[in-house]
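ingest -> fold -> write
write: protein_1
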Amino acid sequence: MEILLKGTTAYKILSGDRLTGRLSHAYMLDFPDVKNMRAALKLFALEFFGTDAGTALGARILNGSYPDFKIYPQEGAKIAADGVGEILEDSVMRPVEGDKKLYAICGFENASALLQNKLLKTLEEPCEGVHFLLGASSLAPVLDTVKSRVKILSVPPFTEEQIYAALERAGHAEINAAAAISSGGILGVAENMTGGGWFEEVLAAAEEICTTVRVGDIGAVAIKYGETKYKTELLCEMQRCYFSALNGEGKAAKVLSTAAIVYALEELNGAFADLKFNANFQGLLYDFLLKVVKENKKWQRLQQ
């Protein structure tokens, strides 16, 4: 994560502000990775104070013992009124050890409009030496009045190559490449995939579904995977499987005609839409496979 973030424009902007003595009184870290948001805020805090994890100061910032850096809420908790009240009360006091203090708020997208409004005046006119770093996985729930009072540091999704390299640095695994492709450029999503056996199960399920070519097998396959907890993930992996087949890769390429693969990808768009309306997933899989298998048989007959 550190290597990824230090290469971003957002990190370089904060670093430049510090080096030129132009630190903003408030920043908003726009970062879609919910799982790694807290770690990202701490990394940006290290840069804010001009230190790193290998120093005594850096270690104190990371372990929460440095009085001029506070991160809210506590890990695992949500932003609450009492936490915002504590920030407002504490922010009127001058820095304890240095010439500046930083308040980081994790998961700001979850803060209600009422809580965001309570922070407005302090964000606009904080006490001398007081700074804020707000972390949000999405800017959509953040009030425009808040966004107008902060300097936004946006971290867009990373590339598949970057995610794959980060996973490999953490430890080689056969599913790293697939996780990188399916992560949407978000490291936390990829880490969740590689951290549990569920993703390997989804990969195997997608391959079995995409290589089903007999009408008689459709019912059993639909029943087998119709109750999965990972419906969206399974459809995404099916999509990836079909795309690979278009390039002549994977088992599906050996049993499906090109026309049937293209047809399957088109039908998957409808499956994604149906899933949003809480369609019965077992029935959805059955109908989808029946159409694809029939399409495949039609083109096989034409080629004979």
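write: protein_2
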Amino acid sequence: MNRDLTTGNIRGQIWRFTLPLLGSMLFQQLYNIADSLVAGRFISAEALAAVGNSYEITLIFIAFAFGSNMGSSVVVSQYFGAGRKKEMKCAISTTFIAAFILSIVLTVLGLLFTDLLLEAINTPAELLEMSAEYLDIYILGLLFLFFYNIATGIFTAMGDSRTPFIFLAFSSTANIGVDILFVTLFDMGVAGVAWATFLCQGISSILAVAALIVRLKQIGETKEKAPLFSFHILKQITIIAIPSILQQSFISIGNILVQSVVNSFGAAVMAGYAAAIKLNNMVITSITTIGNGISSFSAQNFGAGKNDRVKEGRKEGLLISIAFSVIASLLFVLLGRYILLLFMKSDETDAIREGIRFLKIVSPFYALISIKLITDAVLRGSGDMLPFMISTFSDLILRVALAFILSWLLASAVGIWLSWPIGWIVGTVISLIFYLSGHWEKRKRLS
């Protein structure tokens, strides 16, 4: 059901709204975790390294899908909060039309340049074929990736975080079973892992779009029929989407550069990193998802002119994200070895050791980065995009530079791992400065 987030008890609304979002993202992460888990446990350490290596490139495409999600959800949230349903419906159809064209273009470009991208990140020769095989199949499913992200973003914008959770929980659970089926029974190797993701993501995308169509019909017709496409609204969406795409793209490019440094230390470090970064990304993406909920909450209330509720919503978002971060940090520090063994065999000692090092260095700082991500969500919800871009790019540039410098100085992958907390500290300080300045409160509402 749709939920108006501009009235009612803030704490209850935030918790009821964000917890299903968090659950959805945890299931979303099962896609990638299942791929790595099945590749490492049922194929080989090389297969795990190949999937992890390809994953860094897939983040570029995910950046475009995420940006489309954020652009549409912020605009739809503000129109929904202001009660302007005609413009809201037009924003939804405009987003899907633009996303269809964009996803087709990216699919063609991705298939043409797969090998070039893999070679650019120093993919070892023995992993090149497996990495390309996985990546090509993944790219074929970009339309599903875009439509699913947009549909779930729109549900969230209208205050409904439960519907996407139900679809994703079903398809993600199925993905694990299909992964194992394709790899063990059909002996499809890395291709089986990729096709399982393609199939299950396609199903979740179709279900989410179909449910959204039904929901929009339930809202009813407006006095004037909403146009299917509007360049004016596309511009509003683009103003939010492009900074989000650039942010995520630069993060992806940064991750690719870091991956190239990791690759220089050999297959064992690559495998350890592939497993540990999946766990790390699960936590960071989950906190980002909580932030997306706060962003929708902020956008609805900002659209309704209720800035005090925006500030209270941020406090509640911080409570949830910090609590989640502390639990994740304790699990990774205390039980990291046993969690990594889900991805690797016990005799792969070098890979396990490197994965443990990464988790012990990076995970204690999850609470800190959650402060940045929730603060960024408020800035984004108000449409104040420049500040959070500056903080993110500062974090990223510093992190990438330090990965090269410290790994060279220490002659060890530990130098790469140390770059994470240093970048996070700087990014968090910058985000807080922009939020406390109050500039976001003075922004104009959508016309």
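write: annotation protein_2
The radius of gyration is 21 Å.
The mean pLDDT is 83.
pipeline exit 0
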